[in-house]
Amino acid sequence: MKLTLNPELNRCLREKINEWNNFTCEKKANFKSPEKKGKTIEMEAYNCIYACLDRIDELVAHCNTLELKSLFGLYDIFNYGQTLIDCISMISKIYNVPYEAKNDISCFNQKGNDGSGNDEKYFKYLRSLCSVHPVETSQHKIYQGDEPEWCPYISGHGAVMRLLENTNSELKDADYYAVVYRNDMEFNKYVPIRVSQIIQYLSKRYKYIEKIVQAIDRYNDAQIADLIEKHIPLPEESDTYISYLLGLKEAFAERCGDKECYQIKEWIGIMKAHFADEKMQSELQEFQETMKEGIKEIHNKLQNMDIDDCFNENPVRYRTNFIPNGYALENCIISKIYLWVCQMKKPTN
Question: How far is Cα 251 from Cα 307, in angstroms, rounded to an integer?
Answer without folding.
Answer: 13
